[in-house]
Design a protein that fits this description.
Layout (H helix, E strand, L loop, with lengths): L16 E4 L9 H5 L6 E4 L2 H5 L3 H9 L3 E4 L11 H5 L5 E4 L3
Antiparallel strand pairs: 1-4, 2-3
The protein binds iron/sulfur cluster.
């Protein structure tokens, strides 16, 4: 079964949140541009998150300027799926908050 992935979903805010895979994210910012709820922020990856990556992913991120997408406003997510579709690296999935 497919998860929520279309712009027609009308979830309560925060019932579903975007999860960014830092092994894929290159901080290109398409998510930030398309999100109608201002969920995303593009900034330098935290040291702990960087250290959790393997060597190849560290090298890739270093090459791309150490920028990734964080979700400081995840509680506002409406599960519209626009960020999932917009991400050129397929780095975003939608999930129930942990
Ligand atoms: S699913 Fe929609 S509301 Fe939620 S973070 Fe992505 S673009 Fe924003």
């Amino acid at each position: 079964m497919n998860g929520p992935s279309t712009a027609t979903c009308k979830q309560e805010p925060g019932a579903i949140v975007p999860v960014v895979d830092f092994q894929r994210c290159e901080g290109k910012g398409d998510c930030l541009r398309v999100c109608p709820e201002n969920v995303f922020e593009i900034r330098r990856i935290d040291d702990a998150d960087f250290q959790s990556l393997g060597f190849m992913h560290k090298a890739k991120l270093y090459f791309h300027g150490m920028q990734v997408a964080y979700t400081p406003n995840a509680d506002a997510c409406r599960a519209c799926g626009l960020c999932v579709k917009a991400c050129p690296e397929h780095a975003i999935t939608l999930a129930r908050p942990q």
